[in-house]
Amino acid sequence: MITKNIRIQFVDTDLSQRIHYSSIFRYFEIMDHDFFRRIGYSYKKIFQLGLDMPRVHVECSYLGNIEYDDELEVQASISKIGKSSYTFSFSFYKENILVAKGGITNVFIDRSTGKSVPIPDFIRSELLKHHDPVSV
Q1: Pairing state of beta strands 71-81 and 55-62?
Q2: What is the full per-residue pLDDT of the chain (136 aa) written as tens digits?
Q3: Helix (H, G, I), strand (E, B), or coil: what is residue 50?
Q4: Catalytic sites, residue numbers
Q5: Are 89 and 60 in contact (CB under 8 A)?
Q6: SS3 of residue 83 by DSSP
Q7: Secondary structure (H, E, C), 9-48
Q8: I want to staple 105 with a disulfide (CB 3.0 to 4.6 A). Which of 20, 57, 64, 118 is the partner?
Q9: Structural domain tally of the chain?
Q10: Which residues of 27-39 are buried (b: 16+ CB within 10 A; e: fewer)?
Q11: How far apart are CA 44 and CA 46, in angstroms?
């Protein structure tokens, strides 16, 4: 599991100063990119290998109020690892109360063909280190 503190930016809120429903997905992406940087395989490096990881499924449940300038703790872990895909699960806490949870599923593809390919072994081994099937 990786953990990061984030602050909700004004640009991510609606007229009521609550987080806009679509904005949470930007924070999912920030955590996803941060994870790959931490394991030594930034998205840029993955692209240079001729691979890409498009999102094929996203979901989020809002369980509490999230407003402008709130500081949240985000916990992220790999909840599922398939042949060519993985699912990243996220939990957002405000003052130790779960206020949102969700996930993204990404598929490894060959950038030249657009076809799915197996997760490279060197990345699979890192995903397994952070695998937590209970976090679904």
Answers
A1: unpaired
A2: 889 999 999 999 999 999 999 999 999 999 999 999 999 999 999 999 999 999 999 999 999 999 999 999 999 999 999 999 999 999 999 999 999 999 999 999 999 999 999 999 999 999 999 998 876 5
A3: coil
A4: 14
A5: no
A6: coil
A7: CHHHECCCCEECCCCHHHHHHHHHHHHHHHCCCCHHHHHH
A8: 57
A9: 1
A10: bbeebbeebbeee
A11: 5
Residues 88 and 28 sit within 8 Å (Cβ to Cβ): yes
CB-based contact 65:18 (threshold 8 Å):
yes
> At CA 21, angle to CA 20 and CA 24, rounded to 5?
90
Range of the domain at 29: 2-135
Q: How far apart are CA 17 and CA 115, in angstroms?
A: 41
Total residues belonging to the chain: 136
CATH number of domain containing 111: 3.10.129.10
